[in-house]
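Q: I have 444 residues here and want to know how they pack in 3D. Can you give me a structure?
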Amino acid sequence: MGPALRYLGSVCGRARGIFPGGFSAARTPASGKSRLLCQGGRRASTSSFDIVIIGGGIVGLASARALILRHPALSIGVLEKEKDLAVHQTGHNSGVIHSGIYYKPESLKAKLCVQGAALIYEYCNQKGISYKQCGKLIVAVEQEEIPRLQALYERGLQNGVQGLRLIQQEDIKKKEPYCRGLMAIDCPYTGIVDYRQVALSFAKDFQEAGGSILTSFEVEDIEMARESPSRSKDGMKYPIVIRNTKGEEVQCQYVVTCAGLYSDRISELSGCNPNPRIVPFRGDYLVLKPEKRYLVKGNIYPVPDSRFPFLGVHFTPRMDGNIWLGPNAVLAFKREGYRPFDFSARDIMDIIIKSGLIKLVFQNFSYGVNEIYKACFLSATVKHLQKFIPEITISDILRGPAGVRAQALDRDGNLIEDFVFDGGVGDIGNRILHTMITLIELPH
């Protein structure tokens, strides 16, 4: 469940043109993909920057690294509310390097997933970061799943996923001796990695190139600087003031937000559109006992059902040798609620009043009830796992870790699937780029 990242960019600013002072959303003729360009600038003081990135997860750190390597003359800072980097979504996922098979052809999500897989392997090779290209089987265990599996295979081919092939029962056994299935898609390009290790390597690259990282900086307010005799010069050059919960300030020319579970709130702080809203879904994993790890060699996934919003329980090997089973997908009662009884009244009120969750629940009521049931009773999850590996019993598993997925949801209860651009208002709106992101399987 890891990145392959699913991006939703909510651009508060001039989505079609050039941001004042040098940012532009440029489209390259060859690939058609968006990129950020910066022009000029000189080194600023430690409390003021040309660009500030809010969020020290893998997306914020990757953005910071890319900007400073392309534009070393700019002063760039990263603000992270925790004392350590990459501790939430980046540090709470199963670490799968996805191949890009699932997504709508020609969508940015499909293109970025395929390109991103190649880039992450290349980066890990350059930096000596361990990974395993252990592959994945997407397995049909019922006859009715075969048409969906074949359609998924065709989609993967359209997306340019490397090495795909449809295999029958005998080849399934060769790849996964204990897995039963009628037919499967073999995705040899899928791998696993520790994404927190990757993120920390991005941070090291960024700092070695001259970037600054400020931890324990929880953003509370974003506003335009008020000019005064003592600060009019900074107010003109660095017109945006970012204030934290301790009253400390950082000034900058431009802001890029990569705030994960708080993407919508940071957008709202800056006066931009907070929609789509972030709804947290907790994913609980089970862990196969060490003596039973031989049952699973690589990733084993179910055939996705388009009627339901999440992918389903699967088998995932980890870099440390563990085998994770899951996750389920249940509503978290707190944005960083990794335990079942973690609760935040503010988060719950936001979910009920401001998001389209109620509509999503009605659209997927039976699915939601089933996920809650599986979260409460291990035997229900094991029964599902036995469809793939009949030898697994309830005595073979332990309760494992959990993660929270930042799911973007519109007011109609639809899961947001791809990039979304939204124009901002006023001077500050022209200087802020908001990115809302969910990892495609960050625990769902």
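Q: Anything worth noting?
A: Confidence is low (pLDDT under 50) at residues 1-45, 437-444. The longest helix spans residues 108-127.
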